[in-house]
Design goal:
Helices cover 33% and strands 15% of the residues. By secondary structure, the protein is of the alpha+beta class. The chain has a 4-stranded antiparallel sheet, with helices on one face. The chain is rod-shaped, with a radius of gyration of 36 Å.
Length: 142
């Protein structure tokens, strides 16, 4: 038998994949990182806003609200079993056509006692009640 000397064949050099040899930033990765930073920033902002609202909203009436209710209680007996909702009239045009707000003016206060079904329109400048009415929140108008 012939003895043939077999020499090992050197391995064929593998070409690296194209992405491994590419130089420079990958725009997809940069976009994802920026998107992640924006999402984290937005989450942090809304978390901070929620904390601020919780700090300021204690559920107790403010000094201005307490003073208003004290002024009103000197004129009219107010319900004591609930905390009213108080709004300020800012735009008369939106209230046109509603008889309750016929004498209302900008700056008047609307005090709503939903449980007792009472609503009061109060002018804090002259310290007089302008209108008193009743409301029915069980049957909303469609």
């Amino acid at each position: 038998m012939d003895t043939v000397s077999r020499t090992p064949i050197p391995p064929i050099p593998r070409k690296y994949p194209e992405y491994a040899t590419r130089r420079g930033p990958s725009w997809g990765i940069i976009f994802l990182v920026l998107l992640l930073l924006v999402a984290l920033g937005a989450a942090g902002y809304f978390y901070w806003q929620t904390r601020e609202v919780k700090k300021t909203d204690t559920g107790t009436p403010s000094a201005e609200t307490a003073d208003l209710l004290e002024e009103l209680n000197a004129i009219l007996v107010l319900p004591t079993d609930e905390q009213p909702t108080i709004a300020t009239v800012n735009d008369i045009e939106k209230l046109e056509g509603q008889p309750f707000f016929a004498k209302a003016k900008v700056g008047d206060k609307v005090i709503i006692y939903s449980k007792n079904q009472k609503v009061i329109l109060y002018d804090p400048e002259v310290k007089k009640i302008v209108e008193v009415g009743s409301i029915n929140l069980d049957n909303p108008i469609e």
